Amino acid sequence: MRSIPERRRTRPRARAAARVTGAQRFLFVLALFTFGLASMYTSIALLARVTPALFPGKSLTNLGIIKPLANLDTPLVAIKDPGANSVLNQRINLLVLGVDKRPGWAFEDNENSGYLTDTIMVATIDPVADTVSVLSFPRDMWIDIHEGEDVYQRRINDSYGIGVRATGSIKGGVEQLKLDMKENFGIEIKHYVILDFEGVEGLVDAIGGVEVDIPYDLSVPDWYYSNDDVNAMWVSFPPGVNRLDGYHAVAFGRHREYDSDLKRVKRQQLVLEAAMRKAFTLGLLNKNPKDLWDAYAGAVKTDVPYSKFPGYAFALRDTNGKLKTYSLGDPVNDVPTMTPFTTNGGASVLLWNAENVQYWLNQVFTKVAYAEASVEIQNGYGEDGSVRAAALGRYLAYVKGLPTVYYGPDVAVQPRTSVTLYGEGKRDLAEDIAKWMGIDPSAVVVLAKTDTSLPDVVITIGKDFKVPGG
Predict the structure, then answer these.
(1) One CATH from 3.30.70.2390, 1.20.810.10, 3.40.50.2020, 3.40.50.300 for 369-461
(2) CA 217 to each of CA 33, 203, 240, 336, 357: distance values in angstroms, whole numbers, following the listed order
(3) Residue 236: its H or E element
(4) pTM to 2 decimals?
(5) Would you tell me how many other CB atoms lie within 10 Å of the CB of residue 262?
(6) The dihedral formed by the CA atoms of 393, 397, 403 and 408, expressed in degrees to the nearest 10
(7) For a tag site, which of 161, 244, 256, 341 has the least CB within 10 Å?
(8) Which string of DSSP letters, residue by residue, matches 384-452?
(9) Cα–Cα distance between 227 and 101 in angstroms, integer?
(10) CATH fold for domain 91-364
């Protein structure tokens, strides 16, 4: 009889134990879920930070599932990418060299690598603004060469060869030219691409040739051309559309027998633009990056690692082929940038106008916030205001690197200088202009951009105007 109550007493204890175990399981699952969520969040946040390192200009925070977290105001919770001004989103500057390789020269790291850089270009991709530009350097530019502690003057065409001879390697030649690019022009180079003429012929043939619309001043009459110093043939390139295979594309780009090297630069740019158009027409950049690398890597010498190639390919693809070409041989407002000069040793070289060169550098390497921007200057000063407007225009274009600055109509005399922003797209630019002119950025007037022909920013100079930096 006594055993029954004892059994009844044990059942409640068992149920209590079961309840404790269930609560523990719930807490364990909750903790596990919280840990997993935190780990996933941390992974997403980390991936958002490193995405631009793998794919320049790209942002993980634009994805629909992550975008709400990116818009949070709480710093400890919000997921942020590095931003447009981050080092991970900086321009990709590639040194592009066309090497004049003669028969029997090996395209390897030795003294026969070919010192003659027939083509010197810097290709720059802005992964944030989705633009690509190419700046050409006339091979006879007379620049400062920085070799160790020595600084002396030679053609820019000599820089690469000096480095090759000093080190016995292509890398040494590239490093020398990178140094001279930085010291003379302030250009930081990330990677290089070297092509010889045979490689260029192969690349053009691989895309089925190119169509080049040749203006009259760049046309070429009958010319006895050889690409190997052994076999030669007559070639000509009349005005109009020319369909060129690799051999003829290279011949056209190399010609300078009847005119200057500055026109050869223009011919090379025409071929490059045509090749870019053809590549986009064929959709080459939409292909698997590995297939693209395997197909074309053998035609060039480069230090671009395969790990970066997909990101660079995507950045180039996103420009939609909108290639802009520039040359330091071009004048600015009818003022020559290059002036022929004969050295004491009898060498024919090109001296350069530093102000013009800076203008072209500003055009090519425009800051992201200023890309594609247009600024109009209006004279509200009255008499002599046009002179002040011109001085401001030169300051904005030459010193601050604004890509498009022009002069609008005169307006009624204004007591104060004003800055007007049309739309919200270029607010950073408008506020920077205000700062340069000593105006409180909060005083920038913002109006709706109801007409696409309107400039992004209008500066109306008033009676209080003073030239910035003056």
Answers:
(1) 3.30.70.2390
(2) 72, 27, 11, 18, 24
(3) strand 232-237
(4) 0.75
(5) 18
(6) 0
(7) 341
(8) THHHHHHHHHHIIIIIS--SEEEE----S--SS-EEEEESSTTHHHHHHHHHHTT--GGG-EEE----T
(9) 10
(10) Aminopeptidase (3.40.630)
Counted residue by residue, the chain has a size of 470
Confidence of residue 20 (pLDDT cuts 50, 70, 90): low
Band the pLDDT of 28: cuts 50, 70, 90. low
Beta bridge partners of 302: 193
Bridge partners of 460, per DSSP, are: 378, 418
User: What would the two tokens of residue 187 be?
Assistant: 């250009």
| 35 residue type, one letter | F
Per-domain residue ranges for the chain?
3-87, 91-364, 369-461
| Widest pairwise Cα distance in the chain | 129
One-letter amino acid of 29: V
Q: Residue 204 in contact with residue 244, Cβ under 8 Å?
A: yes
Confidence label for 306 from pLDDT (cuts 50, 70 and 90): confident
Tell me the CA distances in angstroms from 296 to 108, 125, 214, 348, 441, one per residue in order.
17, 20, 27, 37, 50
Q: Which three-class secondary structure state does DSSP give residue 327?
A: strand
Backbone angles phi, psi at 458, to 5 degrees: -120, 125
Q: Give the Cβ contact number of residue 52 at 10 Å.
A: 24
pLDDT higher than threshold 50 for residue 200: yes
Buried b / exposed e along 427-445 (16+ C-beta atoms within 10 A): bebbbbbbebbebeeeebe
